[in-house]
Every structure is written in C-alpha cells, then in structure tokens.
Amino acid sequence: ESEALFDLRRNIILAVGLVVMAFGLLLKLILDRLLTEPFDRMVQTAEAIGNGEEGLRFDEQRSDEFGFLARFINRMLDRQYEQREALRLAAAQLSEEKERAEVTLRAIADGVITTDIRGDIRYMNPVAESLTGWRLFEVEGRPLEEVVELCEEETGEPLVSPVLQTLRTGEPARLHGDGALVRRNGELNPVAATAAVMRDDGGEPMGTVLVLQDVSQNRDLTRQLAYQARHDPLTGLHNRLTFEERLSELVESGSEHLHALMYLDLDQFKVVNDTCGHLAGDQLLRQLADEMAHCLGPHDLLARLGGDEFGVLLHNCSEHTARETAERLQQAVARYRFMWEGRVFQVGVSIGLVFVRPREVHSVTELLRAADLACYTAKDTGRNRIHVYEDSDLELARRHGEMRWVERISRAIDDGRLRLHRQPLQALAQDGAGVRHCEILVRMEGEDGQLIRPDEFLRAAERYNLMGRIDRWVIGHAFAAMARSDLWADCPPLRRRVAINLSGSSLGDPDLHAYILEQQQAHGIHLDEVCFEITETEAISNLGRATEFIQRLRDRGAHFALDDFGTGLSSYAYLKQLPIDYLKIDGGFIRNMLHDEVDQAMVASVVQVAHLMGLTVVAEWVEDAETLALLRELGVDYAQGFHVGRPRPISEPLPDGEMLGNG
Prior knowledge:
This protein is about 50% helix and about 20% strand. It has about 675 residues and is an alpha/beta fold. The protein has an eight-stranded mixed β-barrel with strand order 15-16-18-19-20-21-22-23, surrounded by four helices. Strands 1, 2, 3, 4, 5, 6 and 7 form a seven-stranded antiparallel beta sheet that branches. A five-stranded mixed beta sheet has the order 9-10-8-13-14, with helices on both faces.
C-alpha cells in the first residue's frame, strides 16, 4: 500500500511535470509567435534600414503593441526621409545656384570681390583677378585693403575704399572722383567701384561685395571728346569755344595788367582753295598754324576761329610787345611759300589788334567785335596790314554803323519790310522786241515807313553775310509775283524775262539750287522766264563754283547775265569760261561815252566780242536819248536806266512809255 501510494505520488508528480513542461512549451510557442518573432523581424528591419535600405518599413499589419510601435516608427522614418529628401533637394538647388552664380561672375565684364564681415576676401572672379593681378588662391582670407588699393588717377592720392564705407554705414557706397586701381605691378587702372552689404535670411550682415568696372576706354573716349570739343580738328589749335572762354576768364579776372587780342584773316587763301582744291587749302592752314605758333610765347593762346580766321590772346604784355608780336605773325605768313603740285603760292594776313586795358569794362562780344572790325579795316585798306583798334577811329565808327544796319536788316526781314521794285529794259534791236524784260530790285522799308535805298544797307548785308538770306527772300517773292502776273498783266508766260540778282554768298550756297527748284515748282513758273544776274567780280572770285551753279540751272531752262562787265582787270580772259546768255556793260562806261572816246571804244569792243560769242548785250545807266541812240548804233541789244524807266514797286503798272519791246 505504501508502495502504491509512492507510485501514485510519483505518477502525479510526473504528470504534473509533464503538464508543466507541456504548458511551458506551449507558452514558449505562444511567446515566440507573439514576441520573439515580431521582435526579431523588427530587429532585422531595423538592421536593414540602418544599412541604408531607406524604402523598408516595419510591419504595420499587427493590431497589438508591435503594430502600434511599427506604425509610430514608420511615421518617424517617413518624416526623417522627407526631411532628408528636402535637404538633398535644397543642397542640389544651392549647388546649382552656386554654380550659376560662379558662371555668371566668371562671365560678366566687371570684377567682383566678396568679403566676410571682417573684410577678408572670400571670392574673386577672373575679371577681378585680371584687374588686380592677384589670383584667388593667393589672397583668399587676406584683408581686402592689402589687395585692392584705390587712388586718384591724376594725383595718386589714396582714396577710401567703398567696402570700408559700406561696412561702417551698412549702406551701398561708391568711389567718388576719377579713381584708379593700383595693380599688383604698380600700374594704375582707371576703375569705377561700388560696394554693398550681403545679408543672411535674418537680415544680419554676413559680408560685402565689391564691383570693379574697368573704365579705361570710357575715360579715354571722354578725354578725346573733351579735346575735340575744345580743339580744331584740322590744325590741332584751340577752337573758338576755348578762345572765348579764355578771353572771358581774362576779362572777369580784374587783372591790373594789359592784355592784347588779335583777329587774323588770311589774304589770298581763297585763291589756293579754289585753284588747287580743299586738300591744298587744308594743308596750307595746317602749315601756317605751325608757322604762327612759333611766333608766340608759351603762355600765349593761338586759336582757329573758323575758315581762314585765327585769334591770338597775349597775357600780361605791353603795347610794344603786342605790336611786335603782330608784326612777327604778319612777316611769318608773308615770308611763307606754299608748294602744291609744283606750284608756289604766297599769302598774307590782315590783323586787327585790340588792347584789353585794366579797369576798362568790356564784354567778350564787344572785344571780339572790335577785333573783327579792326581786322577787316586792315583788309579793306590794302590787305596784309595791322590795324590797331581805337575808339576814336572814324573807319571803325563807320563799321559800327554797318553793324547797326545788320540789326535793322534782320528785323526788316523778320517783320516783312522788304519790298520788290522792278526796272524795265528796252529792246534796241528788232529781234528782241517780242520778249519783255525787267530787273527785280530790293528795297527796305524803315520802321518809320520810309523806303531805304539799297546802297545804304546792302554793303552791310554783304559784309555780315546777310545777302544769302535776302536773295532767298527775293527769289521766293519774285516767283510768287510772276505766278500772280503782278509784273505784266497782259503778257503771257514765256514772253517775259525777269532778272534777279544773286550775291557772291549765294553762289557759294550748296543748297540754293534745290531752293530755286523748290520755289519754281511751288509757284508753277517756267525757269525760262528767269534770268539770274551775277557780277563779274563775284563770278571770277568763285569761278569754278559759279560755272557749276550756272550750268545746272541753265540745264533747267534758266538764263544768266554777267553784270558790271568791264570792272575786272581780266574780263575777257574769264568770259569764255562762263556759260552765260547776257552781258551787262558796267554803267561807268555808258554814263560818259558821249564825251569819252575811250569809253565809247570799250563799249564797241564789248559788243563785238559778245556778239561773236552769241551773247546778248545790255547797257546800264542810260540816262538820256543821245546815249540811247548811240548804243543802238553800236549794236547794243537792250538798254536800262532812268531814261528807259525808273524802278517802281511791282504793284504799280508800267507807264505806256516804259512798256518793253517798243524799241
């Protein structure tokens, strides 16, 4: 019984042990499934993620704590991945922007240097390297002032760097004045420099950027333009602008010393220019400029004022010194011989001398006007002379009067106070009776309404270059009168011929030909009705230009007359060269021909030569019937003068006795 009890106990113990073991095994299986396996999988996943497999995630399918933990860790991993991806994209973008910035900085034409907040260099683009002479690897981290030294270009005085200014103020700064960069080798390179602060996202300063622009070419161009603005391009002398500025400074200085002003006008320069061409004229001006410059001191000013006119300004000189200088200039020009293509020319110079005395109040305009008047007085009294201006000079007083006429003439033109008159011509030969002729004359109406004779104002108009303006006015108004039939109401076009005078300045006007054609078309007249008159003197002095001008208008149908023939010394020599239709004998030969056999022979000679050349002859200043009869005997074709008809306003009809063609 005890043994059975023992066996029972043993069996119970074994059974319990087996149950416990079975339960343990079951529990182990349960724990392995519920804890160990998920944990191992999480460890494996964690190890894989740690090894860089970013796409792996923990199993979120479980609904227990492991599932919760997996979901939590996965969210953290996703967020970390997104942040890392954002950082990667930002880094890539930053790298791209940096590369773009560096490419841009390498490509731009300006030098760029960046510094940190202390002013130490962090970057230089290739242009900055070229400008400074330093390479980036040599200067990175060094203070900017050790590499970039700025100074005044002309004086070499040091200039404050814009970087120091912008670090001090926090505002953009630029280099003032004509600055230059001192290169590594000590050379100066003209630059413009600007600096600005670089700031971080929070707006705090993080450094500066300095931009250096090479302005060498700009400054050279500016200097060249400044030089050209103040110098004559042909001779290299100072020009009129500089001359007047220096004269103004002298006048305003209140100096206690005497100064002298000279106005020089070359004599016979036009002969060289017209005979040999403008190239020869230009060469002559250059050579004479050198000759005159050698006659002056280092502080004297020689300038070309225009054309063949020069000015001289002598500072702090005596009257004796000024006169001696003027004589040296005159003699130097007179001695000079100009050679061109085997020909030798000699020119002279007329000089007007004005003294600028202490404590005398003068304006620049007054002084230049006085010198101009003195110069032309020298020219009019024989050329190649020196005339000293004096307030009491009667000749200069006359010229002052002419200058006042200039103002009156200009006002008259502007106010419409010029008037057209006409003077008829009478046909003396039967073959001229079919066409009516008259000459258009200009008169000026004064402000008081009285007519002013042309000899009172035309001299001043010629002297001061107003004749071209007057000629254009006459042409336009004469053509308008012809279009209105104001000259002959009963005379059809092409049965009339109207003579219009042209001055020497008009012969030299390159635009006058176009103006005449423009007026002819505007008024609808025929140029065959027009005869332009030019004086012998003007035609000879502008022979080449006059011949070209005449031929161009004759090709359009216009006629031409050579006025005052016989006044020149070589009248016949030039006559064959001018393509003219009419020859008007100077009135000086006509007035006394009844009592002067020489004048009568001269007229007969002119008529014979003119007819041989196929020209029509007109006699001026016919004042009586006897002279008219003699002219008819000598074969003169037309007569003009007070006996034939006095000048009358074009609005007045001609009396029957003055109707042309009634020869």
